[in-house]
Amino acid sequence: MVTFLGTGLLGGNFTRALLSKGETVQVWNRTIEKAKALEQYGAVVCNSPAEAVKGSTRVHIVVSDDAAVNEVLQMAEPALEPGTIIIDHTTTSVAGAIERTMQWAAKGYTYVHVPVFMGPANALDSTGFMLVSDNEETIRNIMPWLETMTDKVLNFGNVTGKAAGVKLIGNQFLIALTAGISDMLALAKAVDVTGDDIATLLDAWNPGASTPQRLRRAIKGEFDKPSWELQMARKDTRLMLEEAERGGTKIPGTATTAAQMDKWLADGNAKKDWMIIASGDL
Questions:
Q1: According to a count of CB atoms within 10 Å of the terminal CB, is the N or C end of the chain lower?
Q2: Any idea what the Cα angle at residue 15 is, between residues 9 and 17, rounded to 5°?
Q3: Within this chain, do residues 51 and 140 fall inside the same structural domain, yes or no?
Q4: d(Cα 28, Cα 246) in Å, to the nearest integer?
Q5: What is the C-alpha to C-alpha distance for residues 58 and 241, in angstroms, rounded to an integer?
Q6: What is the C-alpha separation between 113 and 43, in angstroms, rounded?
């Protein structure tokens, strides 16, 4: 018996995928209509978290944040089976993941934080990435279950909470990327370039492909043989800001980066590779 607490877009499709694989799944959601929508696929809808976990030794939870995880698990606790394994897919704080791991272990239960890089379509198709970090025995015990939900499980070792940190870092990159796209579209409007023009450029020239290489360069601190000097990158940034202002718009992400460049320039790094700004705050 499997339980899913939280059946929004992600939890709902996780449930459907498990049902399609022959699992019996009991579900609960704060908005009951979202849970009832899964009845047509064979889910057993329950009116409370406690009712949903009865008879299950494997409980998955996908809710909004640390507070919601704590609240829902507190409601479920009176009916948890001895030795229940709780698998939490919620994006949470590192401290919250560590604290819950310790608290539930003290109560005789295994809590494992398994955040994901999966959209609803991935949850339904059992694709995308799951992240895990815990002691080796725990990971070994839950891995067969995770591998039925995706074939891409990234194991970050035995440091509790690391998976939570990696998840937040990944989301940070997505947010920064979207902020960059926002600035790009604003500048494009200012200089009379269309979105289709930008798409044509990126279809041919994919700067995202160099992200791992850029990251490794920043980690290693290799800035003495520049491919783009910081002073030249700052000059181009000035041109971007001037064109945006002339076009009556703002590119706030670029302005923030320009301010960071200025700090490094003031510290004598004009001829260093511009990636030096990624090496940490001055």
A1: C
A2: 100
A3: yes
A4: 54
A5: 54
A6: 24
Integer Cα distance of 91 and 64 in angstroms: 7
Compute the radius of gyration of the chain from its Cα atoms: 24
Of 130, 121, 119, 120, the closest CA to residue 152 belongs to 130
Reduced to 3 states, what is the DSSP secondary structure of residue 226? coil
CB–CB of 190/249 below 8 Å?
yes
Q: How far is CA 236 from the centre of its chain?
A: 32
Residue 202 vs residues 126, 198, 208, 233: alpha-carbon distances, Å: 29, 6, 9, 20
Measuring CA to CA, which residue among 62, 31, 57 is closest to residue 45?
A: 31
Among residues 188, 195, 269, which one has the least CA distance to residue 228? 269
The per-residue pLDDT for 280 is 81
Q: Are residues 136 and 27 in the same domain?
A: yes
Q: Give the pTM.
A: 0.95
Q: In one letter, which amino acid is 198?
A: I
**On the CB side of 234, how many CA atoms lie within 13 Å of its CA?**
20
pLDDT tens digits for range 93-113: 999 999 999 999 999 999 999
Backbone angles phi, psi at 140, to 5 degrees: -60, -40
Residue whose token pair is 């539930």: 104
Q: Which tens digit of pLDDT belongs to each residue from 113-141?
A: 999 999 999 999 999 999 999 999 999 99
Same domain, 46 and 148: yes
Q: What is the spatial distance between Cα 277 and Cα 1, in angstroms, rounded to a whole number?
A: 51
- The CATH number of the domain where 94 resides is what? 3.40.50.720
Identify whether the C-beta of residue 145 lies closer than 8 Å to the C-beta of residue 153. Answer: no
**What range does the domain containing 11 cover?**
2-160
pLDDT at residue 282, as a whole number: 62
Q: pLDDT-derived band of residue 2, with 50, 70 and 90 as boundaries?
A: very high
Compute the distance between CA of residue 53 and CA of residue 24 in angstroms, rounded to an integer: 12
Beta bridge pairs of residue 265: none
